[in-house]
Design goal:
Blueprint: H1 2-20, H2 54-79, H3 89-118, H4 128-139
Helix pairs in contact: 1-2, 1-3
Length: 178
């Protein structure tokens, strides 16, 4: 079942990458009015990631094509019951039902870990008390610190000397307990 889910995910990623490989028009700079000064952004723009060279893109595309070809062959081996080299409607329906079952199983497995934390008596029935307890635990949590106030320090490249560590701020002197 895991192989099937992996096969579906791989095929989907491959198709998405092939669809994105269509040539895009070159970016043109936007015309700026001469009489208005350019507004400064609140934050500096993020640096753009370098686009892969055509040779690297071709290698990636080739690997995706190979993976999809292998996946198609595996699907035929598994679901082509009459061996005619293609899926008829009945075989296709059986395959799609199994794929839907795999998606359902994946969703249930993902949700089960949360249910396990909520279901305190482990009977797989979420009572009102269990749901209320979960709601209180979630509402009493400190707020999520999703945005960093300071940028993460850059990691030095492997093999290069480490920069000297900055001394940590010393806490204020506390009065001695009596």
């Amino acid at each position: 079942m895991k192989r099937l889910a992996l096969l579906i995910a791989t095929a989907g990623l491959g198709l998405a990458a092939i669809a994105q490989d269509t040539p895009q028009p070159a970016d043109k700079p936007a015309d700026k009015p001469a009489d208005k000064p350019a507004a400064q952004p609140a934050q500096p723009p993020r640096p753009r990631q370098a686009k892969p060279t055509p040779n690297v893109r071709q290698q990636i595309l080739q690997r995706q094509k190979e993976r999809l070809t292998t996946a198609a062959d595996d699907i035929l081996k598994r679901y082509d019951k009459n061996g005619d080299g293609k899926l008829d409607q009945g075989e296709r329906d059986a395959m799609l039902k199994e794929f839907a079952d795999a998606q359902t199983i994946a969703r249930l497995a993902r949700d089960f870990s949360l249910i396990e934390r909520i279901d305190l008596n482990h009977d797989l029935k979420l009572s009102d008390d269990e749901l209320q307890s979960f709601e209180q635990r979630v509402s009493n949590r400190p707020p999520h610190q999703g945005i960093r106030k300071q940028p993460r320090p850059a990691r030095p490249a492997a093999g290069l000397p480490q920069p000297p560590a900055k001394p940590a701020d010393k806490p204020a002197d506390k009065p001695a307990d009596k």
